[in-house]
Structures are given as structure tokens and as C-alpha cells.
Amino acid sequence: MKNSKLAARFFRTARGNEPVREWLKSLPSEERKIIGVDIADVQYAWPVGMPLVRNLGDGIWEVRSNLGDRIARVLFILQENQMILLHGFIKKTGKTPQSDIELAKRRAKALRR
What we know:
single chain; alpha+beta; YaeB-like fold; globular
């Protein structure tokens, strides 16, 4: 049986900033659209695996978006029936950088407080 849609929520810092929303706004509209469609695909088809979603361990997942000549990642956790978007970045290396995973883990930890 298919799950109902996951709600997507932006992680919000103590100061009220939404880093993923701000990052998305900094991208060209065509790239924002591709990433948005990929996030919506995850919302409506969860659970999803490769090539769209990969489990990075410790409850952190990544949405994998191909932007043509660039690759974007949005790291998220699942909380109740929501995907909380923790961190977004343009990938510059073959492997998701540990520093990006650590940042997502810190934000996830802040959420649980």
C-alpha cells in the first residue's frame, strides 16, 4: 500500500533562517525547478531508492538532482510524516563531502532538542 504524501518542511535556525530555502533562491530558476520536481517525487513516492534518493546513514537521506552540467544534493531527515530539508549544495566531488553530512547531522540534532 502506498503511503500518503510526505510533507516537505524547511529546517529553520534559532534565528529563523531557512538555509535550504535561501540556497534554492540563489540558484537559477531552471535548476530550482529540477530540484523542486525531485523533492516532490520523493514526497509522493516515498519510500524511494536510487538513483533519486540515497541513505547516508544516521537517519540522513539525500535527494540527488542532476542539473545537466552540475549535480545538486538536498539532505533531509524523516520526522513523523515529514521530510525536513536540512542542507542543500552543489556537489563538486564524486562523494558527498563529510562536512556537508556533518552540517546536516548538527541541524537534525538541533531539531530534536
